[in-house]
Amino acid sequence: MSLQNKKILLIIGGGVSAYKALDLIRLLVKNNVEVKTILTKGGKEFVTSLSITSLSNNKVFEDIFDVNNEKEIDHISLSRWADIVLTLPTTANMMARLSSGKADDLATTVILASNKDILLVPAMNVRMWLHKATQNNLKTLLNFGYKFIGPVNGEMACGEYGEGKMSSPRQIFSYLHDFFNNKDLVKKKNISALVTTGPTREYIDPVRYISNESSGKQGYEIALALSKLGVKTTLIAGPTSINFSKDLNVKKITSAAEMMIAVQKLLPVDIAVCAAAVADFKPKNRSTQKIKKDKKNYNVLNLEKNEDVLEYLGKNNKLRPKILVGFSAETENLIENSTNKLNNKYCDMIIANDVSKKKTGFNVDYNKILIIEKNGKIENLPKNKKSFIATKIAKKIIDKILINDKNPN
Ligand code: CTP
Description:
Elements: E1 7-12, H1 19-30, E2 34-39, H2 49-56, E3 60-61, H3 75-81, E4 84-90, H4 92-99, H5 106-113, E5 117-122, H6 126-130, H7 132-144, E6 147-148, E7 152-155, E8 161-165, H8 169-188, E9 192-197, E10 202-205, E11 208-210, H9 217-228, E12 232-237, E13 249-252, H10 256-266, E14 271-274, E15 281-283, E16 303-305, H11 309-314, E17 323-330, H12 334-344, E18 349-354, E19 366-373, E20 378-385, H13 386-406
Parallel strand pairs: 1-2, 1-4, 2-3, 4-5, 5-6, 9-12, 9-14, 12-13, 14-17, 17-18
Antiparallel strand pairs: 7-8, 10-11, 15-16, 18-19, 19-20
The structure holds cytidine-5'-triphosphate (CTP).
C-alpha cells in the first residue's frame, strides 16, 4: 500500500483534540509510516512528548529557540525530510498565524520553509470556525495551496454542536492513504497532459493583429496544479504577461495555426485541457507591408475561420486524449450554450464561465465557474482565486482518469 515507507512530519497544535494525534501516530506507525513530530507550546499543554516518542519511536522536536538543539532542529532539513507536513489540531489562532506568514516558532517556520504539501486539520468551536476572520484565513490558506481535512459536523468538547469538530484519526488516515495512492498512481502510470492557454494573435500586417483580452492565468494555474499532482504537463501558451514557473514545461506560440502544430506534436497525451481563447478568425492574406489608411483599404479585411484545436482533439479517433476538457466563455445562456459546445466538440467536461461579469473571468485573478460533465452533472464553483479553482479542476480530472483506468469500458 502506498502509505508504506512514507515520511510524515506531524505538527501537534494546542487544542483539546491533540490527544487524537496519539491514535493517529499509532495507526501510521503500524502501517510502516515514519512519523516525526513537532510539539508546539500549546500542544504541550495537552499531550506529553514522552507519550509521542513512545508511539512514534522518534524524538519530538519542540522549540526553534532551543539553543542546545539548534544544530539538530534545522527547520529546512526537517521540512525537506518529510513527504508531507500534517498539522493537527489546527486552531483558529494557528490559521491566523499561517495566513499572515508568521514564522515565530518551529512549527510555523517549518511550514513557511516547506516545499511539500501542507495538510491542515482544523478543530475549533463552530462559531470560531464560521467567523468571517477564520473563513477569510481559510480562503488565504487555500490560495497558498494548503489542503484541509475537515472539519466535520458533530458535538464538540465545549458541548456545542456544529461544524468545527476535528476529523477522526481513521478519517485522516484514509485521506492520507488516498492522497499518496493517487500521487503514486499518477507517477507510476506516467500520466501526461497538455494545456492550451492565453489568446492567439492573428496578424493583419506586420504591426496589427486580431486578438482578445485573455490573460492566460486560468490555463496556467491548471497546468501548475496538474504538474503538482505528478502529471507530466506541457503548457502551450499564446502571448501573455505571465512570469512562468521554471518547473513547468512551456511552449510559447503566437497564432492559432502555431497552437495547432504545437498540440499535434505533443500527441498522444492522456489529458488535454483547452483553456485558450483562440481567435476564431484570421485574415486570409497577411499583408507584408503596413496597410495604409487609403479609402481603398476600408474593406481590406478578408477573414477565414481558424481550425478548432479542441474539436480536432475530440474528433481524433486515433489520438483522442483519455480526458478532454474544454472551456466555454459565454455572456448569455451559459449552461445551454456550454452544453452544446461540450457535445459539438466531443469533450468529457467543459468549464463554463460567464464573461459578462467584469470581476471574474477574463483578465482578472478571480473566476466563478460551472463544471459540466458529459453525463449532464453540473458542479458549481463559486467565486475564488484562479489558483484555487485550478486545483479543484485538476483534482477532478485526475480522479476521473484514475477511475476510468480502473473501470475501462
Ligand atoms: N477552441 C479551440 N480552437 C479554436 C476555438 C476554440 O481550441 N479555434 C476551444 C477553446 O480553447 C475552448 C472552446 O474551444 O476550450 C470554446 O471556445 P469559445 O471561444 O468559448 O467558443 P467557440 O467555439 O469559439 O464559439 P463562440 O465563439 O461562437 O462562442
